Amino acid sequence: MREKRFEVVVAGCGVAGLSAAVAAAEAGARVAVLERAPPEERGGQSRYTEAYLRMKSEVEVTDDFETHLAENSSGTLDPDLIAESARPPGQRAAYAAALSMAEPSFIATFADEAGPTIAWLKGFGLRFDFLPTQFLTRSQPRLLPVGGGLALVDGLAARAEALGVEMLYDTTAERLERDEDGRVAGLLARSRQAGPVRLHGRVVLACGGFEGNAEMLARYIGPRAAFLRPICKGAHFNRGDGIRMALELGAATAGDFGSYHAEPIDPRSGVSEPSVFIFPYGILINRDGHRFTDEAPGTVDAHYESITRRIFEQRDGNAHVVLDARHQRVPNFRRALRTDQPPIVADSLEALAVKLAVPPAALAATVRDYNAACMPGDWRPLEADGLATQGLDPPKSNWALPVDEPPFHAYPIISANVFTFGGVKVDSDARVLDSDGAPIEGLYAAGEIIGTYYRTYTGATSVLKGLVFGRLAGRHAARRDNAA
What is the C-alpha separation between 239 and 365, in angstroms, rounded? Predict the structure, then answer.
């Protein structure tokens, strides 16, 4: 078997892995990056995302950043355990040493290091701006890299290559290896061209969640995961290898293994992220022609995930948004439609029902009941206007205008799996922790593989988490005092 020696070995070539590689190389370490994909497809999901960042400026996260993460950082825990998690690790009760939650110190580090990470990226040419988003209404600002995720991948990769990082494409990490003292000292990998290879060095796992692994999806999320689809083609490279390898070494878990980040997409489209965010201006119906959720409890950026989860619960995980001609009078309404497929259009509800393969009588009754519950009021499409139905179950809380002006439009919607929530637990240096809360020496994690979210995703934090903890992992892994 071939052997190669480095000081830091990074599994994964998205923004998390590349951030780790660049930070380690800048600190003087000899670094290798393993990428399952060929060079032209490198970057996993990162290359496809627009990479929204939940920041109100280039130096500060949004005002709700830490609060939202904290509120969605654990399952249903004993409040005494939550209080115990705020104590320094060495002072906690033993039963609270490695709780499956995002620690307060982790969240604080995330917030504190976001600004310095953006400054670091700008230092080698990446640019950021408050660019238009796909949302017509927004409750929080979003900073974006100019050029999106692909610009981050290309900029970080160019910096890594300039620093002498060795890029091993078509190479998959398979198993971690420990030395006689129990430290992670490298990994076994498989190159598509050259076969097995042993890579020596401290390891950063940055190879994503398990969106591309049907067995893990069925095991953790359940058999209905068959109705999910990855948000982009790059997600198929994320097969849970890093999570599996870390758990085999006794890593502690965090994040909701039974859940994922949900986004509404058009199943007819093959483009990356063919999102459909127009539903607050119409009604959502299932295959039986019935409404099943409040389409507009608030601004779409804050509520699309919970609504998409309701779509996932419907028969075959499928729904349609039904709109009348009024939606075309919403300023810039096409910004809320990322699909490349045209709407399904008909001059009558009956004809539309036939095209949607839903019972015409059921759709007619649904629309009749909804229209009757709509009240007069001031319709303000670009802000939550409180124009709500009355006496309807489920209600519609905003933008509730009758659906009665032909032609009628519809888009099919399913839930995309943007990324899975379950993963490993790390400390503020991105060191992977074991089930007793102690760092597994020589092992780090960054990006989606770090379990963080429960129930609801804190929007526009995933790419930022990869950048922040990738940089922290690489910086710490390169320290000379880590050497055996």
Answer: 44
Structure letter (DSSP) for residue 349: H
State the amino acid at position 1 in one-letter form.
M
> Cα dist. 349→293, 295, 329, 343, 359 in Å?
20, 19, 20, 14, 11
How far apart CA 443 and CA 233 sit, in angstroms, is: 28
Question: Counting Cβ atoms within 10 Å, is residue 359 exposed (0-12), middle (13-18) or buried (19+)?
Answer: middle
Least confident of 129-133, 146-150, 364-368: 129-133
Answer yes or no: are the C-beta atoms of 470 and 18 closer than 8 Å: yes
* Residues 339 and 265 sit within 8 Å (Cβ to Cβ): yes
Average pLDDT over residues 234-242: 95
Strands 195-205 and 2-11: parallel
Nearest partner of 421 among 306, 255, 221, judged by Cα:
255
pLDDT in tens, 336-357: 999 999 999 999 999 999 999 9
pLDDT of residue 483: 58
Condensed to tens digits (0 to 9), the pLDDT of residues 403-458 reads 999 999 999 999 999 999 999 999 999 999 999 999 999 999 999 999 999 989 99
Question: 0.90 cut: is pTM over it?
Answer: yes
Neighbours of 430 (CB within 10 A): 30
Nearest to 204 by CA among 163, 249, 242: 242
Nearest to 419 by CA among 253, 246, 235, 269: 235
Question: Which residues, in sequence order, are CB contacts of 179 under 8 Å at separation 6+?
Answer: 185, 484
- The DSSP output letter for 141 is -
Task: Give the three-class secondary structure for 373.
Answer: helix
- What is the enclosing helix (H) or strand (E) of 13? none
Question: Contacts by 243-247 with C-beta closer than 8 Å and gap 24+?
Answer: 243/209, 243/210, 243/422, 243/423, 243/424, 243/449, 245/173, 245/174, 245/175, 245/176, 245/187, 245/205, 246/176, 246/205, 246/424, 246/432, 246/440, 246/443, 246/445, 246/449, 247/424
d(CA 86, CA 236): 37
Provide the residue count of the chain. Answer: 484
- Residue 189's Cβ-side half-sphere holds a number of Cα atoms within 13 Å equal to 32
Pairing, β 260-265 against β 408-420: antiparallel
